[in-house]
Amino acid sequence: MLPDAPDGAAVTAMRARELGRKSVVVGDRVSLVGDVSGADGALARIVRIAERRSVLRRTADDDENTAEGRLERVVVANADQLVIVSALADPPPRTGFIDRCLVAAYDADIEPLLCLTKADLAGPAQVVGYYTELELPYVLVRPDSDLDALRALLAGRVSVLVGHSGVGKSTLVNRLVPDALRAVGVVSAIGRGRHTSTSAVALRLPRTPDGDGDPGWIVDTPGIRSFGLAHVSAESLLHGFPDLVEGTVDCPPNCPHTPDEADCALDAWVAAGKADPRRLASYRRLLASRAGEGDPREAERNPGDPLAGS
Ligand SMILES: Nc1nc2c(ncn2[C@@H]2O[C@H](COP(=O)(O)OP(=O)(O)O)[C@@H](O)[C@H]2O)c(=O)[nH]1
Ligand SMILES: [Mg+2]
After folding, report:
1. Which of 67, 94, 180, 286 has the most CB atoms around it within 10 Å of its CB?
2. What atom in ligand 1 is closest to the CA of residue 222?
3. CATH of domain 234-295
4. Mean pLDDT computed over every residue of the chain
């Protein structure tokens, strides 16, 4: 929940019964009744959830064995931007993961931003080169770099941060919001395979001395390891690959774009140098993982390409 008054006190509120089964997620704008003073022990009630401007969803396909795990979940409402945090080394960047996040972002109508951490350990040329055709905005982060460029891109918006464990996300959140006190170098208690519905937390960015206007919000997602995309149609999946979209105009009707489809025009598209062949391979891996033909965790199956994997 994001209180409307930018410097308002935190209000504790519970879901009113009239909301029925509708759940409140991080980022929701809500109407409150009752004691909204924020005083100790004060309790308000959430009586209405405003229409959501955007919804970032995931299918928890990492937990296929339980009914709960197969559910499509709304992760964050009303986000403007998905900040994909990836280290340039230790751990190495995984473009399969980044591609998966891009699909989730385009599907949710949220703008992606690539945040490349540990730039003191390795250069960005390889990763940035992979995304040349996308004009994907990116920022570099080192321990000694100021965060002005990133802060400027976060100002006035609600940004969701996602990233694999160890990429320096908590370190970054602590630098952006010193009061946040996110645990660094610690794997959270929300372990592998455990269901978590409250795995996102909104943090208000502090005002900077020279900053005018709203510094924005970030939403940390410690419990979210990746985005299951089972709820995304094959056509929407392609929107995560704008560099391939134009290549499909010569495909036969209802082309599945799979490698066994002899008439799929995408092979000729990359052969002509219009897009990176690794992007096509990544698109087809995501297609296959959605169809249940493959394990979404590609890393082990693609040892030949250090950048691949989700
Ligand atoms: N060299 C280097 N190490 C970093 C950087 N950012 C974070 N680290 C280290 O990477 C490790 C993991 O950081 P953490 O913030 O806990 O990652 P998280 O799992 O993504 O939250 C810690 O030992 C950090 O000190 C960076 O920019 N450069
Ligand atoms: Mg962390």
Report:
1. 286
2. 21
3. 1.10.40
4. 83
